[in-house]
């Protein structure tokens, strides 16, 4: 198969700065050289190739858009997105690892943490000396996180946490967990959602891995169980109260997903195109048949549209005007088209499409998760519905 | 120690190249430009030596037009300290001219080591390294696949037919890098951001007169279509005959 050189039918590179292109290309080459040789075996055997973590950190892929002061690269939002695109062309599990560490662990510490917390945690998280996870979703509360039952109570010197979280990427391999729990406000008596940096070695904390997945097999997914876990006062995130805390993190992560899945779609498109040009049936390449050409034409069109959404989304974010609903639109659209492209690519590859010789079925299975996690497709539809009408359907 | 690494921007080897209307140069339209792969080994080796010594400076130099800046930035992103861009509008100066421009810089900077790739993958001339060495009165070791530099002496291994040659030279010297010397690093995001702020000194390249004239550039003739001589065992004699008489490979 010829080397992957990206998809750029609409001169999208002309909308990018030289360093954004350099970042994308460097991550692309790194994924090609260092990650792709590991992924099929890891996916088959259902493990995250942890030996790659130091290199992910060395490349500066953890919290890449956060300031240099905290040991991060300080790249533009668009450059960060393009890096996620290239990681996800490798595998959604790799992008998920970087997304969780960067957007769901480092970002809340950066955005809602004290300066002491930032200096204590961010440089070590950027170097992957610490691995983190994000505990919001619960077994019985997915799309409706406000219904969470995990609770924190004030005790001498800090808090005691009780509850359970589920579908937590990196959980079992984490050193710290950003856990969201309800805490009763002493003055008003009302419960507010607060963020806590929980030491995963703390007494009462456990994170059993969720096994036997048919998707994101090269990614660690876990439950978090908190039984009377003590969290010192210094590890409460002081800067935010309420659901806007975790939702602010998810907006960051979804931004990365909107770019990321374009990478999966490109991998599938590339694979399908190469296959269609070389697979001979009825005496000619199947790429010469109209039905196959129609599929490839739709793939290229949808990838191009998704790329344009991403670049503009990045520019809005860089200007500081990003609205969560704009991220919902891109996450919703791009996951949908990526999944559709993966399915069509599998079809183009025929029986070969189901084997691990090609990346297509792996991406397809991964995208079933990405379509659903970090705001399901349906929930993002309702976010847009509320934005259009002013009428929330989920309340 | 200052190390000078001379790099060349070349067309990506996957580019479907076209000859320009003048018949002697490459049509630049639609070409993706990259760092010559052998120069990448040279950059990496210089960086490793600097890191091992814990001191010194790695300076890049490249001869070419305005577009060369991108390649210089990409190599700076690997970790080099600064760059000198020797500018020219000539799309294809010959080896002698490039060597002249570079040796003027060598004289100025007095590097302990001059690195470059063993050849550029576009014209495969392998000329510039030995020429620079000659002009600057330095020893030159080409096709280096292993290097150990200590105390003003370079101990080098060269890939030669059927084996390796071990060579020792005093510094300063010109060394040209072969594949296998190292595995070049991928530029990190931090490296790329830092490279934006690194200085690129632009000055005209003192090329002088060309030493050779390129008369024509031609693409290889398109390969003739294959031929099926027959099927099954019955076709074997015809195939053997064709391989012997037409292809002349038996």
What is the general shape of chain B? globular
CATH topology of the largest domain in chain B: Rossmann fold
Whole-number mean pLDDT of chain A: 97
Class based on secondary structure composition and strand pairing of chain A: alpha+beta
- The structural domain count of chain A equals 3
Helix content of chain A: 40-55%
Beta-strand residue fraction of chain B: 25-35%
CATH topology of the largest domain in chain A: Butyryl-CoA Dehydrogenase, subunit A, domain 3
Rg of chain A, nearest Å = 21 Å
The residue-averaged pLDDT of chain B reads 94
- The tally of helices of chain A reads 10
Count of the domains of chain B: 2
Written as H for each helix and E for each strand, in order along the chain, the element string of chain A is HHHHHEEEEEEEHEEHHHH
What is the CATH architecture descriptor of the largest domain in chain B? Answer: 3-Layer(aba) Sandwich
In CATH, what is the class of the largest domain in chain B?
A: Alpha Beta
Please give the radius of gyration of chain B in angstroms.
Answer: 22 Å
Characterise this structure.
The complex is a heterodimer of chains A (395) and B (250). Chain A has 395 residues and is of the alpha+beta class. Chain A has 3 domains: 12-126, Butyryl-Coa Dehydrogenase, subunit A, domain 1, CATH 1.10.540.10; 132-241, Butyryl-CoA Dehydrogenase, subunit A, domain 2, CATH 2.40.110.10; 245-389, Butyryl-CoA Dehydrogenase, subunit A, domain 3. Helix content of chain A is 50%, strand content 14%. Chain A is built from 10 helices and 9 strands. Chain A has helices at residues 18-45, 53-58, 77-90, 92-112, 115-126, 244-278, 290-319, 324-348, 360-372, 377-389, and strands at 132-135, 151-155, 158-169, 176-184, 191-199, 205-206, 221-232, 280-281, 284-285. In chain A, the strands form 2 sheets. In chain A, strands 1, 2, 3, 4, 5, 6 and 7 form a 7-stranded mixed β-sheet that branches. A two-stranded antiparallel sheet of chain A has the order 8-9. In chain A, helix 4 (92-112) packs antiparallel against helix 5 and helix 8 packs across helix 10. The relative contact order of chain A is 0.12. By secondary structure, chain B is an alpha/beta fold. Chain B has 2 domains: 2-204, Rossmann fold; 220-250, no CATH class. The termini of chain B are far apart. The model of chain B has no long low-confidence stretch (mean pLDDT 94). Classes of the chains: A alpha+beta (395), B alpha/beta (250).
């Amino acid at each position: 198969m010829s080397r992957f050189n990206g998809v750029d039918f609409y001169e999208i590179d002309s909308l990018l700065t030289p360093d954004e292109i350099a970042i994308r290309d460097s991550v692309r080459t790194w994924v090609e050289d260092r990650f792709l040789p590991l992924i099929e075996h890891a996916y088959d055997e259902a493990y995250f190739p942890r030996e790659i973590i130091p290199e992910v950190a060395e490349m500066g892929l953890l919290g890449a858009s956060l300031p240099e002061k905290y040991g991060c690269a300080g790249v533009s939002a668009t450059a960060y997105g393009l890096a996620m695109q290239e990681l996800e062309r490798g595998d959604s599990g790799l992008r998920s690892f970087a997304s969780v560490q960067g957007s769901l662990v480092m970002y809340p510490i950066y955005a809602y943490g004290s300066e002491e917390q930032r200096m204590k945690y961010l440089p070590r998280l950027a170097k992957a000396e610490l691995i983190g996870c994000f505990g919001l979703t619960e077994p019985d509360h997915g799309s409706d996180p406000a219904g969470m039952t995990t609770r924190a109570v004030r005790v001498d010197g800090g808090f005691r946490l009780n509850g359970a979280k589920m579908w937590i990427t990196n959980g079992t391999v984490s050193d710290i967990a950003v856990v969201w729990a309800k805490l009763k406000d002493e003055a008003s008596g009302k419960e507010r959602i607060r963020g806590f940096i929980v030491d995963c070695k703390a007494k009462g904390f456990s994170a059993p891995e969720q096994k036997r997945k048919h998707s994101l097999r090269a990614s660690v997914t876990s439950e978090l169980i908190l039984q009377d876990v003590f969290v010192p006062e210094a590890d409460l995130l002081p800067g935010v109260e309420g659901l806007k805390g975790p939702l602010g993190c998810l907006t960051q992560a979804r931004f990365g997903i909107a770019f990321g899945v374009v990478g999966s779609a490109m991998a599938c498109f590339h694979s399908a195109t190469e296959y269609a040009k070389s697979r001979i049936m009825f005496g000619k390449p199947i790429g010469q048949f109209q039905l196959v050409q129609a599929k490839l034409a739709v793939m290229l069109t949808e990838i191009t549209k998704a790329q344009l959404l991403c670049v503009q989304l990045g520019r809005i974010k860089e200007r500081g005007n990003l609205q969560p609903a704009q991220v919902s639109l891109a996450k919703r659209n791009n996951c949908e088209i990526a999944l559709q492209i993966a399915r069509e690519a599998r079809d183009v590859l025929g029986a070969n499409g189901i084997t691990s010789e090609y990346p297509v079925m792996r991406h397809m299975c991964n995208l079933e998760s990405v379509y659903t996690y970090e705001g399901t497709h349906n929930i993002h539809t309702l976010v847009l519905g509320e934005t259009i009408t002013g009428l929330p359907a989920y309340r | 120690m200052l190390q000078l690494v001379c790099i060349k921007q070349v067309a990506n080897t996957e580019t479907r190249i076209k000859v320009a209307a003048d018949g002697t140069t490459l049509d630049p339209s639609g070409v993706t430009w990259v760092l010559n792969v052998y120069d990448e080994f040279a950059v990496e080796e210089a960086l490793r030596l600097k890191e091992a010594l814990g001191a010194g400076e790695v300076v890049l130099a490249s001869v070419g037009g305005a577009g060369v800046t991108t390649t210089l930035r990409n190599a700076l992103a690997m970790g080099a300290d600064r760059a000198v861009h020797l500018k020219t509008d000539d799309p294809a100066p010959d080896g002698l001219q490039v060597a002249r421009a570079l040796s003027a810089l060598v004289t100025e900077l007095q590097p302990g080591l001059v690195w470059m790739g063993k050849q550029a993958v576009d014209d495969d001339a392998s000329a510039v390294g030995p020429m620079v060495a000659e002009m600057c009165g330095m020893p030159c070791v080409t096709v280096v696949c292993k290097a150990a530099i200590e105390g003003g002496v370079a101990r080098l291994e060269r890939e030669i037919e059927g084996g390796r040659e071990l060579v020792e030279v005093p510094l300063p010297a010109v060394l040209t890098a072969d594949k296998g010397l190292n595995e070049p690093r991928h530029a990190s995001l931090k490296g790329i951001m830092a490279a934006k702020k690194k200085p690129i000194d632009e000055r005209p390249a003192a090329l002088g007169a060309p030493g050779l004239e390129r008369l024509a550039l031609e693409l290889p003739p398109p390969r003739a279509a294959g031929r099926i001589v027959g099927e099954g065992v019955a076709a074997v004699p015809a195939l053997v005959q064709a391989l012997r008489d037409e292809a002349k490979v038996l």
